[in-house]
Amino acid sequence: MLVVEDETVARVALDKLLTRSGYQTTSVGSGEEAVRFLKQHEGPHVALIDLDLPGMDGAELWHRLRNLSPETHAVIMTASSVERVRALIHDQAVPHLRKPLDFRLLLRVLSQQSEQC
């Protein structure tokens, strides 16, 4: 699983939670780092992407992810409104979770996405 979160504390916490829950994770702090990772490695099954990244935002990363690794399922995290999420990803059926994250819900959504792989 690829975790893309610019806030260090949140990224480390997510990495620990997911690792303890049995996921193999790679965590990066920007959309640009995520693109570099995707170009150099086989695509992950799931990418957990913060929508509000500096530089390349999560919506642009999601669009690039679809081209670089079409088999990867994305889950968007955001403190933004649902309407903004839908507008940025053009109403595609991409799961999105509001921050602060409910870890039980996060694990349930990630499990569902992993099963589709």
**Low-pLDDT regions:** none
Largest sheet composition: 5 strands, parallel
Which CATH top level class of the domain at 31-102 fits?
Alpha Beta
- What's the Cα radius of gyration? 13 Å
Q: CATH superfamily of the domain at 31-102, called what?
A: Response regulator
Distance separating the two termini = 12 Å
Helix-strand sequence: EHEHEHEHEH
Number of helices: 5
What is the 3D form? globular
| β-strand number | 5
Mean pLDDT: 92
Q: How much helicity do the residues have?
A: 40-55%
What does this protein structure show overall?
With 117 residues, this protein is an alpha/beta fold. The chain has a domain at 31-102: 3-Layer(aba) Sandwich (Rossmann fold), CATH 3.40.50.2300. The protein is built from 5 helices and 5 strands, in the order E-H-E-H-E-H-E-H-E-H. Strands 2-1-3-4-5 form a 5-stranded parallel β-sheet, with helices on both faces. Helix 2 (31-40) packs parallel to helix 3 (58-68). The mean pLDDT is 92.
